[in-house]
Amino acid sequence: MADLWQNAMDHAVSAARHAGEVVREALRDDRKQTVMTKSSSVDLVTQTDQKVEKLIIQSVKEKFPTHSFIGEESVSAGEPLLLTDAPTWIIDPIDGTTNFVHTFPFIAVSIGFSVNKQMEFGVVYSCLEDKMYTARRGRGAFCNGEPLQVSHQEDINQSIIAAEFGSTRDAETVDKIFISLRRVLSLPVHGIRGAGTAAINMCLVASGCVEAYYEIGIHVWDVAAGSLIVSEAGGVLLDTDGGPADLMSRRIVAANRRIIAERLVKEIETFSPIRDDAA
Ligand code: LIP
């Protein structure tokens, strides 16, 4: 199957590049984007998200007609979110939709590919930086063809941590987010950052720019590709409860080293959003 998956990965790279052109074109277009909302008033979607997802899925279907899909906007439109053993493309057409709406310059196209529920390759295209991050299982992670390596830092007090706050705004959730932030900041760490896209945050961990990233509330399409990029760059993934990472749990810690991941987990006030695979 090796060559078949390489063909699929090559296709993912060119589909992501094409999607990036569509995103850049939309940002150049003077007409204002129509912004719609999904799970909450701050969970945004635009016609460009929908258009890009359709383009990617259409092009994949033409080449790989038997493959399955989990796409952020297809799921929002009512398609089932079902990860089976089948070759499955897990697509976030625009990761960082809020950034896109506000022209905040970190926007990614994220395409993960899983077989037997194991990630085989991940492609994250940071469209405005023109950085193509790729990883294939067992073959390393790359940015624009250059190998990626996580940071060697083992002291959390010497680390930068990336964090995002999700799109849930009920008081209880916001309180938990603040408790975690306060604890992490007070360790102290050198700083807390957030690119506004899970996929790019994970690529920053893989690149060694930040030691770790955590978030509760993400979906499988936000982290599928990035998770392989982090592990192939030498990093580790955990659930925010300290257990093994589970792409359906909507909780992730991605770190350069296990010692950093485990230290971070101690400070996170974890909670349990409805799982992606809940019936
Ligand atoms: C977004 C993530 C971001 C997170 C949001 C959302 P979208 O993805 O990448 O990091 O904080 O909750 O999931 O909606 O732009 O694809």
Which small-molecule ligands are present, each listed once?
Answer: L-MYO-inositol-1-phosphate
Measured by DSSP, the beta-strand proportion falls in 15-25%
Question: Which value, in Å, is the CA radius of gyration?
Answer: 18 Å
Superfamily at the CATH H level of the largest domain?
A: Fructose-1,6-Bisphosphatase, subunit A, domain 1
Mean pLDDT: 96
Contiguous helical run count = 8
Distance between the termini: 32 Å
The CATH topology name of the largest domain reads Fructose-1,6-Bisphosphatase, Chain A, domain 1
Q: Indicate the percent of residues in helices.
A: 25-40%
Write a concise keyword list for the protein shown above:
alpha+beta; five-stranded mixed sheet; Fructose-1,6-Bisphosphatase, Chain A, domain 1; seven-stranded mixed sheet; D-Maltodextrin-Binding Protein, domain 2
Please characterize this protein's 3D structure.
Strands 3-4-5-6-7-8-9 form a seven-stranded mixed beta sheet, with helices on both faces. The chain has a five-stranded mixed beta sheet with strand order 11-10-12-14-13, with helices on both faces. It folds into two domains: about 150 residues, Fructose-1,6-Bisphosphatase, Chain A, domain 1; about 110 residues, D-Maltodextrin-Binding Protein, domain 2 (3-Layer(aba) Sandwich). Helices cover about 35% and strands about 25% of the residues. The longest helix has 27 residues. It contains eight helices and 14 strands. The protein is α+β, with helices and mostly antiparallel strands. The structure holds L-MYO-inositol-1-phosphate (LIP).
